[in-house]
TrEMBL record:
Gene3D superfamilies: 2.40.128.270. It comes from the Bacteria. This is META domain-containing protein. Keywords: Signal. Residues 22-42 are annotated as: Disordered. Residues 1-21 form the signal peptide. Coiled coil: none annotated. Residues 138-239 form the DUF306 domain. Pfam families: META. It comes from Marinobacter confluentis.
Length: 243
């Protein structure tokens, strides 16, 4: 009897042990979010010496004056909120491109870009900028703080919104306005401004007139350390606006 009881007890222990195990695999941990992808094609350039890299879907293109254009397949080594790293190699040529989401100004034109870029060619390091400058100003309603050297009238509101497809719109201080805008190389151009015809207090009408004249005279923009939009004409800041 004791032997039978011992056998039953041992069997119960074995069944309990098997019940605590599972032949099905454990649920895998979720893959971390790789971060935002770059727009494709993504273009980066640098100066002295000049170079251009274009990251297209499936290939990386390297352009340098006096040298053949190189087209290589690449791998994305790192991709996160703090930047991207691409690598490509072929026939003795090794390329690594590193981007970081930090404001970068072209050393020749002064045009601001949304990303700083480092390019390594066979170990040699080159610095440059990347991304479309439009990304810095699109999709934001910029609220004007100063026009020329004068602040806006208390409780008045002048705004600028750069819209897709080259459209611009906003409040001039009294009336709504629309127009067109473009970035051509190193130049910002605002043109064909038209506004509604509501009458306001003379001071507001004067401010609106100065604002629209300065906006249409614009030929450059920058982003300040405070993340303000600074619009210039003839090398002088004429409008400053905040997000």
């Amino acid at each position: 009897m004791k032997g039978t009881q011992l056998l039953v007890f041992a069997g119960a222990v074995l069944l309990a042990g098997l019940a605590g195990c599972s032949s099905s695999p454990e649920k895998p941990e979720p893959v971390p979010d790789p971060g935002p992808a770059l727009e494709k094609p993504f273009t980066a350039t640098g100066n002295e010496p000049f170079w251009r890299v274009i990251v297209e879907p499936g290939q990386l293109v390297l352009e340098r004056p006096g040298k053949p254009t190189e087209e290589l397949r690449y791998e994305t080594v790192a991709q996160s909120d703090t930047g991207h790293r691409f690598r490509a190699a072929r026939d003795g040529l090794s390329i690594e491109l590193v981007t970081a989401p930090q404001l970068c100004r072209d050393t020749m034109t002064g045009m601001p870009h949304p990303r700083q870029v480092r390019l390594f060619i066979n170990g040699d390091r080159f610095a440059g900028c990347g991304g479309d400058p439009e990304q810095l100003i699109l999709g934001v309603e910029w609220v004007v703080a100063t026009i020329g050297d004068r602040g806006v009238i208390d409780k008045s509101r002048a705004t600028i919104e750069f819209l897709p497809e080259g459209r611009i719109a906003g409040n001039g201080s009294c009336n709504q306005y629309t127009g067109t805008w473009s970035l051509n190389g190193e130049t910002l151009e605002v043109s064909r401004l038209a506004s509604t015809r509501k009458a306001c207090e003379p001071a507001l009408m004067d401010q609106e007139d100065r604002f629209l004249r300065q906006l249409e005279a614009a030929n450059a923009f920058d982003i300040s350390r405070e993340a303000d939009l600074v619009i210039s004409a003839g090398g002088e800041p004429v409008i400053r606006a905040a997000r």
